[in-house]
Queue: 2 jobs
Job 1
Amino acid sequence: MSRACVIGSGPNGLAAAIVLAQAGFSVEVFEAEATPGGAARSLPLTLPGFLHDFGSAVHPFGAGSPFFAMLPLADYGLEWIHGEAPLAHPLDDGSAVVLERDLQHAERALGADGKLWRSMMRPAADDWMEFAEDVLGPVLRIPHHPLRMARFGLSAIQSAQGFAKAHFVSPRTRAIFAGLAGHSFLSFDRPLSATIGWMFGITIHAVGWPIPRGGAQALVKALIGYLETLGGTVNTSRPIDAAAFSELERSSELVLFDTTPRKLVEIAGERLSPKYKGDLERFKAAPGAFKIDYALSQPVPWRGADCGRAITVHLGGSFEEIAASEYEVAHGREAERPFVLVAQPTLYDPSRAPEGKHVLWAYCHVPNGSTFDMTERIEAQIERFAPGFRDCVLARHVSAPAALEAMDANLLGGDISGGAMTVRQLLFRPTVKGYATGAPKLYLCSASTPPGGGVHGMCGYHAARLALRKMLK
């Protein structure tokens, strides 16, 4: 039986391992940390009985992944929980803009922009899986629906600033779109910042923004459970250095790397061409994240009561204010009033905290590698929309960019995106070679390859399929 190895056990690495195991390979996964999952781990970061998601918490692309949808993950314990509303965005007048999965609700909630919102979102939301196969696939290929993708691309490649100005008349719609676009880590005057906003908006109405019962680790556990039925194994606390890699390469037909380009060079540099290594070393990282996990004595006391219905809350106020925050970060400065992303999973999954208590997950964007402590600024933004929040805090665990990288080597400088989403790095991610490295047997399958960041496994899926096709030639 042919042998394949995967270095890294994030969702992309596990997806690649499953594809190879389905093809009949004997597959081993090697994970440096004691707990598998990469940035999709759940850990006891604060007090006993409180379970926090180290990285990803809410999983629209996990629930909407074409590859995960093909797997019997429910048989291995995966259960998606949908709150009453995927997203809330509080405003300074005490109200909140709320988006539910139902597009009719969105049409009513967004007033003058409601019909336009519905018409923009509905085609892709109604045909999500086929749309997702196109947008979550390799970039340089013929899509299944070329005309639809062309229409999407021509509109979405705009900047968030230009897109919002051209399409939305209501400040409330522009505000909630700003929060969606903020997931891009781009300044709102840059191309593609609208793309991410539109994509996240579509997922709200297509698949929702659910959480796995028991935390992100439940998704990883289900993937590993299925992989093991195919004969695959996951080895934890097994970091792979250059010497260990040499042995793996000698004994394997394929080695796939669920790592950053820099880590690929560090481990397998002798097998890579000088030009390719140079291209990898020039791959640009995205800004970083500064994250805080909270143990709370009660739910967050939101001034806008509708925020208590949503698992995800975006904090930042108006479009202009969020745009200013992201502009500062993109230009190497920490924002005075940062855009803050909040997840409150225990509103709908009480298993993750002692009875009556809650966990909260919050982060903002900072320049890559920032050492500035954003705790006070994050909490000021939460207090702005939830007066008395600090009185609810029992404990907090602060993760600056360096701490995130220390717990997951793929999060370079706090980059949770697998690299900046520039036009060049969308088309050539991380280089023109994509998943291939130019070295026989070796492939890159991390979020630094198409389609990029997000818990969807599609990078690993496509990389493994390419590796199999090349073996058959």
Job 2
Amino acid sequence: MARTWLQIRVDLLGGGGTDLRDPPGRIFIVGPSHSFEQLAEAINAAFARWDLSHLHEFELVGGRRIGYPSDDFVPDLAWEDHAKLKVASEVSPGEEFAFTFDFGDGWRHRCRVLEGKVDPREEWGPGPLPKRPVAVWGWGWIPDQYGRESASELDLEP
């Protein structure tokens, strides 16, 4: 297993039928024991997703697909289990891969493993190291998962 922590830049390219002209992004630190499942959870939290009932996948170079295996939804694809694979063992600095959340709305992300080693103590601070990938830097406006701009678009009781 890799012992090096990675920095992964994730840019939100679009979704819900739109492409984002100025993509918001986040930089995550990812430890050697962190799985793709944990990275997906961190990305969804950092991009303000609240309805997490949707499938997702990572697509690595060469077409490898990593996600929550679901023969009900996509029976013809060969999926690798996101809970079993460690990010730092499967990608290297300089590599790029994709993350898609919600196959219906297709929230697309470009993920780039940044060059150079990262010291998690410098990025995270003192105390226990994070047990999951965490965003340590970010920029940009995050669109609502369903395109809503205010609470008036919801069916809420007063």
